[in-house]
Amino acid sequence: MPHNETRSPTILSRIVRRIIIWIYAWKGWKIEGSLPKSIKKFVIAGAPHTSNWDFVFFAGATHKEQVQPNFMGKHTLFQGMMRNFMFDMGGIPIDRTKKANAVEQVAEVFAQREELALVIACEGTRSSDGKWKSGFYNIAQAAGVPIVPAFADNDTMTIGFGPPMIPSGNYAEDLLKLAQWFRSKIPDLERYKVLEAQAKALIAEQIAGNVAKSGAKNT
Prior knowledge:
By secondary structure, this protein is of the alpha/beta class. It has one domain. It is 45% helix and 17% strand. The chain has seven helices and seven strands. It has a seven-stranded mixed beta sheet, sandwiched between helices. The longest helix has 28 residues, at 190-217. The N and C termini lie far apart (59 Å).
């Protein structure tokens, strides 16, 4: 729920949460690693995103870790009868009509709260070829919070959490570090191979750009 509200969670949200926890336990998913206990605010960078069930299993795993997961949603979903339910489930409304962009809006929410674990599907949509969007990184950097990588392995029914990483400001190099961690967990997953190739291509572009600048200065 919104950080400034003290009302009790809605009946619907309590029912849905119990169903999610039951499904997670019934399916027999397990957890590898853990979410940070000493860090109260962070971005969970989750991949791959291949099914609508991803949210259920991540919600179940974060419940086991005693962490309330949060997610971003269109502000129009937080209206009328759905308002309280969406907040109770951890939703953060994003208003695309505002002057402040999504990164700025979420960074402001991070600044307002004492605890916030924001789950982001870094590929954007399930139809992605595996390339990541930079929004998760920009949000973590703007909010001054670490990134916690997380994977879901449907074959072994495992949700895994990695060590927190503070954004260095070099997106390409940080993306490669994340890609290498993900590939260490599921080496043959095609989406992780695409992610690693994406990071290496960005680094190559940086190197080429630096060489070009250096050459221009020397002429």
